[in-house]
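tool=predict chain=A
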Amino acid sequence: MHKKLNSVQIRVTSICRREFARDVYRPGVISLSRIVWGSLGGSIALAIIGILSKVVGIAVLFPPLAATCFINSNCVYLRVARPKPVIVGHFVSSIGGLAGVWTGDLLAGGTDFVIPLKLSLALLYAALLMQVFDADHPPAAATAVIPAILPLPMPAQLFPVYMAWGATIAVLFALVWNRVWFEFPAKDDDYCVKYAGLYMEKPQVWGLALCMVSTLLMSCKQVAPTLYSIGLWGMTLGVLLLGMHHFVVALVTPKTEN
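tool=predict ok
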């Protein structure tokens, strides 16, 4: 049974592949498939991140990653759900948040306005960085502002890499969970050619692969510190490859007349 009520569509249909198509598996459509599969996916993903964080000793900020898990399971056809914005967005927003805290303390330290200034500057820097690196991911805005009001559960210099670790796990889970029913990352006008079975550009696939391997190495923190250290550098390189390849393309692509 399907009903269209102004801006909302209600679909009472059993879970099947059709219910995961772009036109119905989206905000604005209330369906059994999205309620069950999407809700379960987000909650399981966050549980996995939480368990792994505790076991391997890598602290992350859970509120922004919870929002990421929701988007990756329920709003999968949006550009902000793609691996690049998720991983790079949390990484650069962490840097923006730290910069906002430092600048706020510098300009208004010891005054009643220091926290509002830190919050606004953290969001400003995060928004700038996410746009420059083509990594718009709304949950990462929370990653940026949390350091302005709460102490970090990890050393500041590790904040960006640890958040990229958590974001990579969220992406890994989404790749497995969503591809039971549909292609993820989804095909769209900007990503219509597959590489290694994914609708992603070649540098993005390599960057994602490096982040995945580095996530595994970082998870050896308790048992193999050397591998953990290699993972930290590998994650940084993976994020740089994901986030900067479009600059290289822009440099080598000849100008065209409009």
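The mean pLDDT is 93. Residues 2-252 form one domain.
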